[in-house]
Amino acid sequence: MSDLRPEPLEDDVPVDGTQVRYAGAAQLRVGEDQQYVTSDENLLEWVDPRDSALLLERTVRDSWRVLRIQSEFVAGFDALEKVTEAVTVFGTARSVPGSAEYELGVEVGRRLSEAGFAVITGGGPGAMEAANKGAFLAGGESIGLNIELPFEQHMNPYLTLGMNFRYFFVRKTMFVKYAQAFVCVPGGIGTLDELFEALTLVQTGKVKRFPIVLIGRDFWSPLVDWMRGTLLAGEKISPEDLELITVVDTPQEAVDVVIASGIR
Ligand SMILES: C/C(=C\CNc1ncnc2c1ncn2[C@@H]1O[C@H](COP(=O)(O)O)[C@@H](O)[C@H]1O)CO
C-alpha cells in the first residue's frame, strides 16, 4: 500500500462499517460483508427519485462523479498517447499457467510482439496474463488496463505499463483507441462483451480497418455458425457483417491476418 495514495474524494468516503482499500488509482470500499463496492456499481445504482433526500444526494454525487470520470479519461490518454502499433488481446480470466489455453495466450503475445505490435490486455489473470507474459518475455511493450472489481484485484506481473480503471466504459475506450486490431482467445462473458462491442463499432463505422480475429476454430465456430444460422437467416445482420470476423487456429495465423489487413 503506497504512502502516496490520494486522499479519498468525497464520493469515496466510506459509509459506516466500511474501510477503504487502494489498488493503484482505484480506491475500493469494503463493506461489512467484505464485498467491495465499485465505482461502476455506485454510478449504476438505482435511487428512488421519490425520496427527495436520496435524490439530492445522488445529484450532488453524480455531478462530482463526472469530474472523476473525466480525470480517468485524461489519465488514460496521457499514459497511452505514445503507444505505437498495438493489438488488444481479450480472453478468459480463468485459464491457469501450464494449461493449453494459457500457453496459447503466451504464444499470441509473443508472436504479436515479435511482429512489432504492442500488446494491450485487461491486465488481469488468465489469458490476459498469458498474452502479457508472451509480449514481456519477447521484450515488447506489454500494457495491462486493469479494472476495479468487487473482489480484490491484482495486475499481472508481466507489464511494461499498467493502469487501474474504475469505470468499464473508460477502460473500453482505451482498448479501442490505442489498438488497431483485436485478437480474442477463448473466453466467457467478459470476452464476448468485448468482442461484440468491437463488432458494433466496426459494423457502425465508428472505427475503420479494424481486424477482429478469433483464435480457436473449435471454440468459436459454433458462435459464428449461430450468427449465420440465426442472425443472418433471421435478417438481424447483413452478410458483410460476418466478414468482420476472421476465425483461425494458430497465433501466427492471427498475426498474419492483422498484418495482411494493412493497418501499418
Ligand atoms: C474472475 C477472475 C478474475 C477477474 N479479473 C479480471 N481482471 C481484469 N479484467 C477482467 C477480469 N475479469 C474479466 N475481465 C475482462 O473481461 C475479459 C475476460 O472475461 P471472461 O468472462 O473471463 O471471458 C478480459 O478480456 C478482461 O478485459 C479469476 O480469478
From TrEMBL:
<keyword id="KW-0203">Cytokinin biosynthesis</keyword>
<dbReference type="InterPro" id="IPR005269">
    <property type="entry name" value="LOG"/>
</dbReference>
<dbReference type="InterPro" id="IPR031100">
    <property type="entry name" value="LOG_fam"/>
</dbReference>
<protein>
    <recommendedName>
        <fullName>Cytokinin riboside 5'-monophosphate phosphoribohydrolase</fullName>
        <ecNumber>3.2.2.n1</ecNumber>
    </recommendedName>
</protein>
<dbReference type="Pfam" id="PF03641">
    <property type="entry name" value="Lysine_decarbox"/>
</dbReference>
<dbReference type="InterPro" id="IPR052341">
    <property type="entry name" value="LOG_family_nucleotidases"/>
</dbReference>
<comment type="similarity">
    <text>Belongs to the LOG family.</text>
</comment>
<keyword id="KW-0378">Hydrolase</keyword>
